[in-house]
Amino acid sequence: MSYTFSCTNDWVFTDTELKASPSSKKGISWDQELELRKNGIIFYESLAKIFRVPRQAIATGKQLFHRFFIRESFTDHDKYLVAATCLFLSAKAEDHPLSVHNFAEHYIAQRKEVTMEFALRYHTVEMIAEAILQKEYIVLHTLAFDLDVEFPHLLLSDKIDSLVDLHTHLSVAEKEALTNTMMKNSWSFLNDCSRTPLCLRLTAEEIAAGAAYLAGTIDDTIPCTIRTKDGENWEYVLSDNQNSLIDSATMILEVYVSINEATLSPSIVKLLNMFHPYRDLDPMPDAIMAPKKPSTLDDGVDTDFESDVTTPPADRTLFDDEFDGVIHISRKRSMEEYDMASPPFSPCSPPYSPCTPPYATSEKRPRCV
Asked: With 14 labelled, which of 203, 325, 357, 368 sits at a CA distance of 20 to 30 A?
């Protein structure tokens, strides 16, 4: 699918530029890079929850993490240490500084639950604190000390208010309820897509417009009969460029494409059928596909590269009883285990709901005619 955006700042890239990242030049496929980014952000969110970091600082650090790995390769840096460092740095930048030793102590505890390789090595708080401070300098240098971040969350209120104002037949209480519903759904979309490098592809304005558009489209929250004062479809309030608006919504929903539909709410599945109707098609035969670049990684294996902190392994005999003599190199926690503040992949309905049947062909486009 081709998109209709142009780059307007130093941190917005084209699809071609994103997929030509430093990681791709070292044998990591784009799908693997997306998985590495997602796992790094999930770990980031688990730490942020422990320290009750303000939302603005959380949003800042996520963008710093994605920016860092558009200039550096995952093969050269420990994604978990980078994620923790971005959180530590963003909290400091947003006037919520954290004690580095206390932060390092919780980092060690969280990291041991994520990767067994880390748990089998000896780490001290002083060692990890020093590694975080060193990585902080590397992150700042890599980003050219540019910590200026735009937040699509701050743009939602005006966009949703403009949509709610189109409902002239609603009472004040009904408008307030509609506003709350759309704000909740929009925030859920923004929280979910923050695990992808969408902030490197779209501006904050475009992301906010796409999230508001999805909030109005999901479950027909805003009926197609609603029109602007000029008689146009309601989505024209968000953007005059309808192709750009649909592309924004499509890219936000890409975070759900690789998820098993059985774990998604029917509302999300319905949106996927509208914006990604061909996602379930079988891949092209190898004979007609472009040659695949050799990869240094095993397909299907969630990579976890060597930690930046090199320490001697612990005595494995101490762990024989606990792990039945089998040493697992890496174990990733599921999103449910992290007990996220916002429900992943489901802004409206609980997860694990049965999915709805696919849309008919005539209903695949989300536009009102």
From this structure: 368
